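Fold Annotation — chain and its backbone
Next Lines — sequence and tokenised fold

***
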Amino acid sequence: MPSDNSTPSPNHATPSAASAPNATPIDITPWTEKYRPKKLTDIIGQKDIVKSLSGFVKAGNMPHLLLAGPPGCGKTTATLALAREMYGEQIHECLLEMNASDERGIDVVRGKIKDFARTVSLASVPFKLIFLDEADSLTSDAQSALRRTMELYVSNTRFILGCNYSSKVIEPIQSRCSVFRFRPLSEEEMKEMVQRVATAEGLKIDEKAFVALAYVSEGDMRRLINALQGAALHGKHITEESVFKFAARARPKEILEMMNFALEGKFVEARRHLHTLMINYGLSGEDVLVQMYREIDNVKIEERAKAELIDKIGEYNFRVVEGANEAIQLEACLAQLSVLGKKEEKK
């Protein structure tokens, strides 16, 4: 019989530090969910819309809603906060959340949505909510079926439809909804969110890093927080360089420098600069063209030439999106800039 003091064999598994009872669990929640506002009053921006939604909660009644706006501007967050304040702990029984880009056919409307809509709410609020995100992805037949469902079960269910483009939602649905148009967040609003996260996570953020975060996010709060979390992987001190590296964006001055080389007729130098940017930052052809477009106002050429430049960038962007070779198209675009620069010199 082995003694009590016998040592474990090499093959015997010992508990790891991670599985110890007192070990601190690692929080793996993405920051976009961790810092998603839980209340309407916590939402940054969209003040008029938040005020209207708070009025619906106070009244305990609401019409169908159509929330339109670009990605990451708060449509889903506002809907979940509204439902949470309206239903409290009964939110899971009273809210059906679906993404129409995954389930976009008429069978989904006739099945899952209709089955949920026809049942009666057991909560204190006499109706349930169906949140259909990316409703502009629904087929025409599905939208027509949805319109009829919205009419039939309005006493039991209210619909909240989220979309990027309200023009892609058929008119009969739009006429049955109160339309709220969300706008991209301002730089001040994004800075407020960055400071909120930085305080909670103990981050130190340079002023130039704030500007970089606003530049790469383009008013998209989700993209902003993802960029911040990615930059934080390099350390608690967030710099401009760490932001651009993680977001796969070049510094605006680097894009502008490349464009100026081309306009000055230094095509070989501009081409070398392009290749360096694509290798260092992992930029796609479309990324480069979009950043070139954003720098047009800073290029020192006449207004007529700027209009011509936008036309050229639009043409090459279309070619890249359609599947043409990125390197060839970008170099051809720089060649067009060189030609444009020579025209400006002659004037």
About this structure: The domain at 31-181 is CATH 3.40.50.300 (Rossmann fold). Residues 1-20 have pLDDT under 50 and may be disordered. The chain has three domains: 31-181, 187-247, 252-346.
